[in-house]
Amino acid sequence: MPSVRGCNLPDDLLYDVDNHIWFSEVGDGTVKIGMTTVATAMAGRLVAFTPKRVGRSVRAGKSCGTLESGKWVGPAKSAAGGEVVAVNDAMVSEPSIANDDPYEAGWLLILKPEDWDPVKATLVVGSDVAAPYEAKMDSEGFGGCE
Questions:
Q1: Total domain count for the chain?
Q2: Residue 141 counted as domain residue
Q3: Quick count: other Cβ atoms within 10 Å of Cβ 129?
């Protein structure tokens, strides 16, 4: 598993480094979406997650939900557009789960993407994510997760 400045980035995921979002192909044509450890470390302890509801559509590059911490409120942007087919209700009731376990328990939602192959081609494979994330952290002045 790549680790950049103490931030774990599992190599079995696909990353939208610019938006600090990970994607995992579920195998049934859907993708699971979540925030990276970098995102949760930068945001601080999450206190609210308001996802798009099941059945709603997400436009590519737009918000699939809103996250809030004590120092930040903002969108979780999905590189992929499509229909929300599941929401992590545990994250809605206890958003700080993403701070503790962003890659397992702290996922945000599952999307049935439209046009997945072209989007997938723009994402960074986990085994190649260390260098792009190092550059992103430099550009944002972020020292790391520890």
A1: 1
A2: no
A3: 23
